[in-house]
C-alpha cells in the first residue's frame, strides 16, 4: 500500500508504506511490520494519509505551518521559542540534571523492604517493533571460541543488529525527536532540545548534507544522560478504569489526579526530578500476544497531561506501551506531540515498553526508580532494564 498523497504545492515525496517482507529470522515479527505515520508531503501545502499497522489512521492535514516570529510552530504545542533551556544555553543533559544527592536520598527513603521489580521486557525475536526496525541476534560459532589451555576454555559471543536504542524497552534521548520550524531542507531550522539543530547534530560544514553525524550524532547523544536514582510514581490508570484502555484513548490530567486519589496520594507526591509511569494495560495484555493490535495504535497521555507533568518537573515519563502517548492523537493534525513536549521542549526523557503490572498487583505506587542508560556516544536512545525498589 502506498500513502495517498494530495499536493497543492510542488514539494512532495511519496513514501512507500507497504509492510516490508523480511526474510525469515530477520527479527521482525510478521505481525508487526508496521508502517507508521509517514508524513508524505514535506513542508508546503498538501495533505498526507498517516497510517498505523497498514490501515488508514487519520489524515494529517499538513497545511503550511505558521512559523512564529520567535521560532516555534503556531497553533501547536510547539508554539513559541523553547530555547535556551532552564539549564542554560549549551546544556545537553536535560532533565537528568535533576539527579542530585537530595533526589537520590529522597528515593532511598522509599526503600523499606528491599523488594526489587524489573521493569524491562525481554529482548527477543518476535517482539513488536516500530515501523521497519529490526532485531537480529546471532551467535558466531558453537562455541564461538576455544578450546584453549589445559583447562580447555571455550566461550560464546554474539552479534546484534538492531536500532539499539529504539527497540523493546527503550529510553529516548534528546536527539531522538525534534520539530521542523522552517522550510524543508533547511537543517538549521530543524530544532531539537535547547535549540540544537539537525545541522549541529550532524556537524555540517556545508549546506550539502549530513556528514559526521552519520557515525554518531555530534550533539545530544546518550553519553550526556546521567544515571537515574530518583523517586518513581506510578499512575495505575488501568486500575482506575477497571479495564485495559483502548487504542487512541487519552489519559487526561483528571485521570492522573483520580489515580493519585485512588492510590491515597496527592500532587505533592510528584516531586521535581521524579520518574512518572502510567499503566494502560496495553503491554501486559498484548505484548507478544497480539502484536498486530499492540502496534495498531495505543492509549496514553495526551497533550494536556503531558504539559501538566512537564510543569511538575518530572525527569522521565514511562509507560507500558510503545510511545507513552495516545496514538492516534485526538487532534488529527498532531503526530507524537507529547514526544515533542517532553524531549524537544523540556528535555524530559521518555521510556517505552516497560512492565508495570507487578507493581500494580502489589499496590506499589511510590518507589525508588533506578536506571543507568548505556552511554553510547552519539546514540538516540538506550535499551536497558530499569528497576523499582521498595
Ligand atoms: C518514534 O520513533 C517516532 O517513536 P518512538 O519513540 O515511540 O519509538
Describe this structure in words.
The protein has 390 residues and is of the alpha+beta class. 16% of the residues lie in helices and 19% in strands. It contains nine helices and 20 strands. It has helices at residues 101-108, 198-202, 237-241, 253-262, 282-286, 291-295, 303-312, 337-346, 357-361; strands at residues 5-6, 47-52, 55-60, 116-118, 135-138, 145-148, 153-155, 159-162, 170-172, 179-180, 190-191, 228-236, 250-251, 275-279, 300-301, 316-319, 349-352, 366-371, 381-382, 387-389. The strands form six sheets. A nine-stranded mixed sheet has the order 4-20-18-12-14-16-17-9-19. A three-stranded antiparallel sheet has the order 1-2-3, with no helix packed on it. Helix 7 (303-312) packs parallel to helix 8 (337-346). Acetylphosphate is lined by residues 130, 166, 172, 322-323, 336, 352.
Amino acid at each position: 500500500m502506498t500513502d495517498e498523497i494530495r499536493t497543492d504545492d510542488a514539494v512532495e515525496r511519496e513514501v512507500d508504506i507497504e509492510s516490508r517482507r523480511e526474510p525469515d529470522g530477520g527479527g521482525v515479527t510478521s505481525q508487526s511490520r508496521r508502517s507508521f505515520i509517514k508524513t508524505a508531503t514535506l513542508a508546503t501545502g498538501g495533505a498526507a494519509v498517516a497510517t498505523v499497522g497498514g490501515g488508514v489512521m487519520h489524515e494529517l492535514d499538513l497545511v503550511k505551518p505558521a512559523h512564529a516570529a520567535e521560532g516555534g510552530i503556531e497553533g501547536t504545542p510547539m508554539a513559541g521559542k523553547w530555547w535556551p533551556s532552564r539549564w542554560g544555553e549549551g546544556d545537553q543533559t536535560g532533565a537528568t540534571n535533576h539527579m542530585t544527592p537530595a533526589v537520590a536520598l529522597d528515593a532511598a527513603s522509599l526503600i523499606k523492604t528491599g523488594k526489587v521489580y524489573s521493569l524491562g521486557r525481554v529482548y527477543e525475536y518476535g517482539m513488536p517493533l516500530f515501523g521497519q526496525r529490526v532485531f537480529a541476534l546471532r551467535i558466531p560459532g558453537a562455541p564461538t571460541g576455544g578450546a584453549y589451555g589445559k583447562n580447555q576454555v571455550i566461550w560464546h559471543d554474539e552479534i546484534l543488529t538492531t536500532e539499539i536504542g529504539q527497540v523493546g524497552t527503550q529510553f529516548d534521548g534528546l536527539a531522538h525527536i525534534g520539530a521542523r520550524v522552517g522550510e524543508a531542507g533547511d537543517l538549521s531550522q530543524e530544532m531539537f532540545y535547547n535549540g540544537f539543530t539537525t545541522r549541529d547534530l550532524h556537524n555540517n560544514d556545508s549546506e550539502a548534507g549530513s556528514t559526521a553525524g552519520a557515525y554518531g550524532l555530534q550533539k545530544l547523544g546518550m553519553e550526556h544522560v546521567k544515571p537515574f536514582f530518583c523517586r518513581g510514581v506510578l499512575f495505575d490508570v488501568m486500575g482506575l478504569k477497571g479495564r485495559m484502555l483502548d487504542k487512541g484513548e487519552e489519559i487526561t490530567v483528571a485521570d492522573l489526579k483520580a489515580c493519585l486519589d485512588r492510590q491515597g496520594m496527592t500532587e505533592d507526591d510528584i516531586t521535581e526530578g521524579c520518574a512518572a509511569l502510567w499503566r494502560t494495560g496495553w503491554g501486559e495484555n498484548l505484548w507478544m500476544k497480539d502484536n498486530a493490535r499492540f502496534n495498531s495504535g495505543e492509549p496514553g497521555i495526551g497533550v494536556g497531561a503531558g504539559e501538566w507533568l512537564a510543569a511538575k518537573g518530572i525527569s522521565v515519563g514511562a509507560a507500558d506501551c510503545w510511545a507513552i502517548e495516545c496514538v492516534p492523537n485526538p487532534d488529527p493534525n498532531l503526530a507524537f506531540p507529547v514526544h515533542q513536549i517532553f524531549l524537544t521542549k523540556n528535555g524530559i526523557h521518555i521510556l517505552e515498553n516497560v512492565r508495570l503490572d507487578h507493581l500494580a498487583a502489589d499496590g506499589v505506587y511510590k518507589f525508588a526508580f533506578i536506571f543507568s542508560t548505556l552511554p553510547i556516544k552519539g546514540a538516540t536512545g538506550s535499551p536497558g532494564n530499569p528497576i523499582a525498589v521498595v
